[in-house]
Structure formats: C-alpha cells, structure tokens
Amino acid sequence: MTSRAATRPAPRPVGTVTRGTTNPNRLRRMDRWIAAVHGAELRRAPDPVAVDLGYGAAPWTAVELLHRLRTAAPHARVVGVEIEPARVAAARPYAREGLDFRHGGFEIPVRGRPQLIRAANVLRQYDEAEVAAVWERLCARLAPADGHSRGGLLVEGTCDEIGRRHVWVALGPQGPRTVTFATRLGSLRRPSDLAERLPKALIHRNVPGEAVHAFLRDFDRAWAAAAPYASYGARQRWIRAVRDLTADWPVTDGPARWRQGEVTVAWEALAPRRPL
C-alpha cells in the first residue's frame, strides 16, 4: 500500500523561468573573484557546498564554477539548481564527483546551509520591488556566521553575453556587503559603460540624486583625469582612476584586484537612497 506521504507531490519551486541564455566562460570574472575573496571560507568549511542558481539552458557555468572553486578549495562541491525541469534533465549527463544538478528555485533544494549561492543574470527579469524579498530568502539559506567565519556568501549580479562587463552584489547572512564592478579593460571606453550591467537592485538608480549615479560620474571623471596613464596601458589607467576614487568612496579592495579590472565598493555607499 502506498502511503499518503509517498504520493504527495513535491513542492513547487519558488521563482520564474528565465530565458536561460548562457555561454562558456561567461561568468569567469565573478568566479575568479569568488575564489579569491571567499576561498578561505570554503577551505575551512567541513562540507563546502556552492549553488549555481539558475545556470540556464546549458550546464557550462556550473561545470566551470566547480573547476575554479577547486583551485581555492579542493573539496568544494557544486549543485546546479534550475527551475525548468528540461534544463535539469539536459544537464544531468554532465554530473560527476562534486557536481550535481537539481530541480528547484529560490528555496534552494540542498541539505543544510550552502557556503555559496551564485545567482548570475537571474533577477534581471524580475521587478526591482521583488529583489529585497529574494535576497532575504537566499541569505536565510546561507551558512551562518560564527566566531570563526563570516558565514556563507550570496553573489547576485548581471553580465553581458560573453562576460566582458559584470557588476554584482555580495551578501552575507545579514544582508548586502559590497558591490563589485569588473570589466575587460581593453573593451572599456569609460567606467560608466558598466551601468547597463548593474544588477536589478541598482540599474534603475543610475539617475541624478542616487548614489550609484554619483559614483559612476566620479569614476568617469577619475578615468578622464588618468588619461596620461593610457600610454602605459588600460590597466595602469584603471588603477590610477580607482586610486583617485578612494579619496571619496569606500573602496574595499586593493591593487591586486584592481589589476584584474575590478573595483569593489561598500554597499552602504551605493545603496538606493529613496523609493522609486
């Protein structure tokens, strides 16, 4: 006799099916940043589980995330989570030791609390008013902070189709921490080109009176002032511009990350100032 529990349908995943567009190496900038800044937390964790939430129509980003995390944490595991069942079925042939694929959404269908949730290009199709609730739900699933750890990390952001330009927010169990701007410097005309890749929480805030607009304005000015350094290459110009930014903005990283075409700023400095 079949029990009622055995026949009960599985809970419906939380979220909406997205377009699912993906490309190999699209998230390389985000992955390398995660490995650099969160690798120590992953190494310390007894079971370092990372979730690639909404990996899309092909599993490349989950496969690549495992490879890159294991350069920093050899025992890391990755679970790809997708709300579209056909995408999960298509990905499962790529499963192997340390890599699994599951049907689900913002509820994050994994045991325990993951050390990392990466949600790239997932909230782009949502309304800004929905972002705070999604962040809160995902942060509640992260490994908690304790005396020896800052807890798990949620990285949520947006990039272009081939990963040249990317902006993401990093959040811990208690909420947002930082915003990172990352780019292929050879493709950059000015820093405000990154505005079109702002995550959903900020993309509608690039208007006068909002902090992110002021930041990008100041970044463009610093970039223009650093023009003489262009003769040494775009990297040296970027480093000089970011160094000048630190006089007025709480930049949280240093030259080692700036050389990668990155700059990270405290969330509080760029957070929305007023309701839309």
Describe this structure in words.
The chain is an alpha/beta fold and 276 residues long. The protein contains ten helices and eight strands. The protein has helices at residues 4-7, 28-44, 60-70, 85-91, 128-140, 200-203, 211-225, 234-245, 255-258, 267-270, and strands spanning 49-53, 77-82, 99-103, 116-120, 153-159, 165-172, 175-183, 262-266. The protein has an eight-stranded mixed sheet. Strand 2 (77-82), helix 4 (85-91) and strand 3 form a beta-alpha-beta unit. Helix 2 (28-44) crosses helix 3. The protein is globular and about 60 Å long. The N and C termini lie far apart (56 Å). The relative contact order is 0.12. Residues 1-7 have low confidence and may be disordered.
Produce a short descriptive summary.
This protein is of the alpha/beta class and 276 residues long.
Broad shape: globular
What is the CA-atom radius of gyration, in angstroms? 19 Å
Number of contiguous helices: 10
- Please count the beta strands (DSSP E, at least 2 residues each): 8
Strand order, biggest sheet? 3-2-1-4-5-6-7-8
Helix content: 25-40%
Helix and strand succession?
A: HHEHEHEEHEEEHHHHEH
The major β-sheet equals: 8 strands, mixed
Q: In angstroms, what separates the terminal alpha carbons?
A: 56 Å
Rounded mean pLDDT score:
93
Unreliable stretches (pLDDT < 50, length at least 5) are 1-7
Q: Pairing-aware structural class of the strands and helices?
A: alpha/beta
The portion of residues forming beta strands comes to: 15-25%
InterPro entries: SAM-dependent_MTases_sf
Protein name: Class I SAM-dependent methyltransferase
Keywords: Methyltransferase, Transferase
GO molecular function: methyltransferase activity
